[in-house]
Design goal:
Length: about 90
């Protein structure tokens, strides 16, 4: 379980290899705002080795959220891999 506080950025990082066409996405949900998403290749920088996809988000209400991440190609409707994250957000006060 991930833990965070309201209106404080929470970061989820996932291994990704964009050369396959499969990119990570996070399903939007009520109470969550996506701040940014960025991809950083592994240090060796060799083609096809992949890297890290980072999602920065905030939650505006204390609650337990179930965040769904999925991998898919932009031109396909089916998803390849799903990951679920349970996120417990406490009040920032």
């Amino acid at each position: 379980m991930l833990e965070g506080k309201t209106n404080t950025p929470l970061i989820i990082q996932l291994e990704e290899n964009p050369s396959t066409g499969y990119l990570w996405h996070i399903e939007p949900q009520t109470g969550m705002s996506m701040l940014s998403t960025a991809y950083t290749p592994h240090v060796n920088g060799e083609i096809g080795t992949g890297g890290i996809r980072e999602f920065r988000m905030v939650f505006n209400q204390p609650n337990t959220y179930h965040v769904l991440a999925f991998q898919k190609r932009e031109w396909e409707s089916e998803c390849l891999i799903f990951k679920n994250f349970k996120v417990n957000i406490k009040s920032n006060v």
